[in-house]
Predict the 3D structure of the following.
Amino acid sequence: MGAVANGMALHGGIIPYTATFLIFYDYMRPPVRLAALMGLRVIYIFSHDSIGVGEDGPTHQPIEQLMGLRAVPNLVTIRPADATETIEAWKIALERRHGPTALIFTRQNLPVLDRVTLASASGVQHGGYILWEADTPPDVIIIGTGSEVHIALEAGKMLQEKDIAARVISLPSWELFDAQPEEYRNTVLPPDIRARISIEAGASLGWERYVGLDGIAIGLSRFGASAPGNVIYEKLNLTAQHVVDEVIKLTQRRKT
């Protein structure tokens, strides 16, 4: 499938795409790597992107695959948080001419974020943006991608009730964000705010580049389980309450 798409890209005249579950990226590595190496304009769509797959169990629940995609040079990986971010992700994928793009989608339904009260989804074009923040200068930054952005947002609003000011960042694409000018990146992630937490339903390896040595990366260091997606999220501590608890620990630790 991937090899055919690469061949179509070489022929020209169309923008080829392929689609499969994210877990099956393991079988797609050679064509994806070749497309990146050759600068081919191919779009790879990967769905069922986390333990949210549910009852299919750990054999079908990707853990390390997302980080594997991010490790490929000249490949842009985008994991949107809702339908509006997905529209922006497609724009990016269609406009890229000198390399492949991987779009990462969930199996579970996600609510559409209210862009009247939250930042515009056009921030996806920068790879990461401030989705929401409290009325006062932030004490902590919470970073999420994909379905976990909703958890980060819920946690941020819960912290506001505890008089802890949070900034919630949606970071759908590491590659696009890292390509932004330093001034923009520092506006989103100010260097002086070192209390940071990330949450993503996958391997946490690599998140230290954004949360720093003082921050916490909430993720998975184990394979999943066979259960409804919401149950697995709860059991493996991918919840807003767990984020809140970790923020409180982090802020208390920094005060001592």
